[in-house]
Amino acid sequence: MVGKPKGKKTVKKRLAAADRKDQIVKVAMSLFARNGFKGATTREIASKAGISEAVIFRHFKKKADLYRAIIDMQCGDKRGEATLIKRLDGKKGKDIFSTVASHIITEHQKDDTFLRLLTYSALERQDLSKIFIRTKALELLAFLQKEIIKLVKTGVFKRVDPALAARAFTGMTVHYSVSQELYGLKAYFKRPNKKVVDTFVNIFFDGMMIPHSTYPSPGAAFRHQPCYPARPRRRKAALGEGRVGAMRR
Predict the structure, then answer these.
(1) Is the dihedral of CA 202, 208, 211, 217 positive or negative?
(2) How far is it, in rounded angstroms, from Cα 30 to Cα 59?
(3) pTM of the full predicted structure?
(4) Per-residue confidence at 15, pLDDT binned at 50, 70, 90?
(5) Which of 228, 180, 237 is nearest to 205 (CA)?
(6) pLDDT digits 0-9 by tens, 163-194
(7) What CA–CA distance (Å, rounded) separates 173 from 169?
(8) Which residue, 36, 66, 94, 236, has fewest beta-carbon neighbours within 10 Å?
């Protein structure tokens, strides 16, 4: 008598430590962004990832460790270096601000998960947003401040508090992303990203530059063009000209 063939046992593929860590981070991000930090437990993360809670604690001893891993995955490369800062390497003047605005707007447009995480973190008083501010956000602001100081010293920008100026510029771009992606304004307001970036950068430079100043750009001196062309001045009518014209009609 021939016995029935035994069914094949399903063998779970064991992930390498780095891959398992990345998997936990991605699952945690997904649950936190959807349910908030208080609405997602380690048990849920473990269940979704198909692992035990012990595995999570093996990779992340504290919540802060998981939060840092999330920030690095969203903002940095595999070595934890900020992706945006690396993109700014070798750029000068207006190119720096265009790159920053383009990166912020485009990345959040592609995936709003991190915006949601930062919002939930701030509202629920979790440490993720604090860690992000202390690391990546302050790093970017410091970079912009240095560039603003250079432009002030070379007589291109007006004398101004560089920290406030950097906050003003990033404020435009971040608020635009938040209102578009989280608040739903993109359903009523649609513009090409390039137009948004160029407009924001020009608004900033229009307010910051000393009139008739120039600053070096790759290859040649670049004279800043205002956002909108100046209106042509009306010729003042000579005394009595309007009245005479009216009487003749």
Answers:
(1) negative
(2) 18
(3) 0.75
(4) low
(5) 228
(6) 999 999 999 999 999 999 999 999 999 999 99
(7) 7
(8) 236
Q: Are 155 and 67 in contact (CB under 8 A)?
A: no
Query: What residues does 221 pair with on adjacent strands?
Result: 216
Closest CA to 114 of 75, 83, 84, 140: 75
Amino acid type, 239: L
Strand partners, 47: none
How many other CB atoms are found less than 10 A from the CB of residue 122? 14
- pLDDT tens figures, 213-242: 665 543 333 344 444 444 555 555 544 444
Which H or E element spans position 245?
A: helix 241-248
Topology of the domain covering 85-219: Tetracycline Repressor; domain 2 (1.10.357)
pLDDT at 28 over 90: yes
Helix (H, G, I), strand (E, B) or coil at 222: strand
**Distance from the first to the final alpha carbon of the chain:** 120
Structure confidence by residue, pLDDT tens digits, 117-165: 999 999 999 999 999 999 899 999 999 999 999 999 999 999 999 999 9
Q: What is the DSSP letter of 157?
A: B
Query: Phi, psi (5° rounding) for residue 73?
Result: -65, -35
Name which of 107, 91, 102 is nearest 173 in CA terms: 102
Phi and psi for 26 in degrees, rounded to 5? -65, -40
Q: What is the dihedral of CA 109, 22, 129, 115, to 10 degrees?
A: 10
Closest to 215 in 3D by CA, of 97, 104, 102: 97
Distance CA 89, CA 170 (A): 18
